[in-house]
Specification:
Layout (H helix, E strand, L loop, with lengths): L1 E4 L12 E6 L4 E6 L14 E4 L5 E5 L4 E5 L5 E6 L5 H5 L2
Amino acid sequence: MLLFDNGWHAAHPTPRSRVLEVQPTTNTVVWSYETKPGWKFFSSFISGAQRLPNGNTLICEGMTGRLFEVTSVGEVVWEYVNPFFGRRAFWAQ
């Protein structure tokens, strides 16, 4: 099971997000993606993660409009940051 932990309720001094793969039968974390420092990857809402057929993970960091793919060792393969997000993007039209 793949989970996007937005970090909103974490007992951590700085905001951070992470992606966890949990083995449901044993309740153990078998894979995770997070950054150091933690604040470099944070989205408190509209985010998610999906395992791709090639074994990599597609991550949507919704708060910043960023999509990226990481390998099983956490290497970023590619990323795209949507330049049209936030309130001003809608009112500028």
